[in-house]
Write a structure and sequence with these properties.
globular; 285 residues; 37% helix; 6-stranded mixed β-sheet; 24% strand; alpha+beta
C-alpha cells in the first residue's frame, strides 16, 4: 500500500533501479512494464526523503535468498526472469516492506552510452584492481571512466576477496560519481535545466509508464536543495554467504536488521537510518 501522510506533507518516494544483464540494447520504445526474460545484475532502491533534501540508495546484492511470489525461495535477481519487472517490483516491495513508486532500468549498451553522454564519470576507487570484463586496470583514488571502462568497473567481482560485496560498493561509487557530475551543472536550479538534462538522459533509460518527463521534471524541481553531500549509500544487511538446499551459492539476508530497514522505508527516514548506522560503526572498536 502507498504510504499515507498528513495533509500538506510529502510521502517518501521509492525508486527501483535495475541493471539488466542484457548485452543488447532493449527496445527504446518499451516501458518497464513490458520487459522480461533477463536477470537483474544490479538492484538498488533509492528513497527520496519527504523533505526532498536527501536521497538514500540501498544496494540489494543479486544473490540474496528471498521469497518470490509463486516460485518459493530463490535469488532475488531471478524475479525478473520469472515474471518480468512487475514480479521484481513485487519481490523488492516484500523485501523492503514498502511500496515502489517508480522503476528505472538500464542495460549494458545503454549504460555505456549514459556514461559517455555525461562526459565520463569520476569515481573514488577504494581498491586497485584489474577487471576481467575488458581487462582494465583501475588505480586507487579518483579515476575517470568512459563507458567501456565503467561497465568493466561495475561488473567486476572476481578481483575481490569479498566478491559481490565490493562490487556493490563499486556500483555505489559509480552512481555517486554520476550524480555529482549531473549536479555539477547546476541541473536542479531551474525547470529548464532539469527538463534539458532528463531529455538528454532519457534515451539510455527504460522507465515505468508513470515516470514521464513532466513527472520527473517536477520531482527534480522539488529536489532543488539536494547537494553532493545529500546522497547516502549502503547495502542491505546480510549474514554473509551460504548455500541453498539445491547447492546454489547464495547471500543470506539478515532479517532482524532488515526489519529496522523496513521501518525506515515506511517512515521515510532511510537517510536517518544510514546516519545512525554510520555513527554506530564509527564508535565500534
Amino acid at each position: 500500500a502507498a504510504v499515507e501522510v498528513p495533509e500538506g506533507t510529502n510521502a517518501p518516494i521509492n525508486i527501483l533501479l535495475l541493471g539488466s544483464d542484457s548485452r543488447e540494447t532493449v527496445d527504446p520504445d518499451a516501458t518497464a512494464e513490458d520487459l522480461k526474460g533477463f536477470r537483474s545484475d544490479v538492484i538498488m532502491v533509492a528513497q527520496v526523503s519527504p523533505d526532498r533534501k536527501n536521497v538514500t540508495f540501498m544496494s540489494i546484492m543479486r544473490d540474496n535468498w528471498v521469497p518470490i511470489q509463486g516460485h518459493g525461495e530463490a535469488k532475488i535477481n531471478a524475479a525478473v526472469a520469472y515474471g518480468g519487472v512487475p514480479l521484481a517490483v513485487n519481490t523488492v516491495e516484500n523485501f523492503i516492506g514498502a511500496r515502489i513508486d517508480h522503476v528505472a532500468l538500464i542495460d549494458f549498451e545503454s549504460f555505456k552510452g549514459l556514461t559517455d553522454a555525461v562526459g565520463g564519470v569520476t569515481v573514488k576507487n577504494a581498491i586497485p584492481f584489474t577487471s576481467h570484463h575488458g581487462n582494465f586496470d583501475f588505480a586507487e583514488g579518483d579515476i575517470t571512466l568512459n563507458g567501456e571502462q565503467a561497465l568493466g568497473y561495475v561488473r567486476e567481482r572476481y578481483a575481490f576477496s569479498d566478491g559481490d560485496y565490493q562490487r556493490a560498493r563499486n556500483q555505489q561509487a559509480y552512481l555517486k560519481g554520476l550524480m555529482k557530475e549531473i549536479l555539477s551543472r547546476d541541473t536542479l536550479t531551474s525547470p529548464g535545466k532539469v527538463t534539458g538534462t532528463l531529455d538528454a538522459l532519457k534515451p539510455y533509460l527504460i522507465l515505468d509508464e508513470a515516470l514521464d518527463l513532466n513527472t520527473a521534471a517536477a520531482l527534480g524541481v522539488e529536489m532543488r536543495d539536494v547537494r553532493n553531500d545529500s546522497f547516502e549509500f549502503f547495502t542491505s544487511p546480510t549474514l554473509g554467504t551460504g548455500a541453498s538446499e539445491d547447492g546454489q551459492s547464495i547471500v543470506l539476508p539478515d532479517w532482524a536488521q532488515i526489519e529496522k530497514v523496513r521501518v525506515a522505508f515506511q517512515d521515510g527516514t532511510l537517510d536517518e537510518y544510514v546516519t545512525n548506522m554510520n555513527a554506530a560503526a564509527a564508535v565500534t572498536p
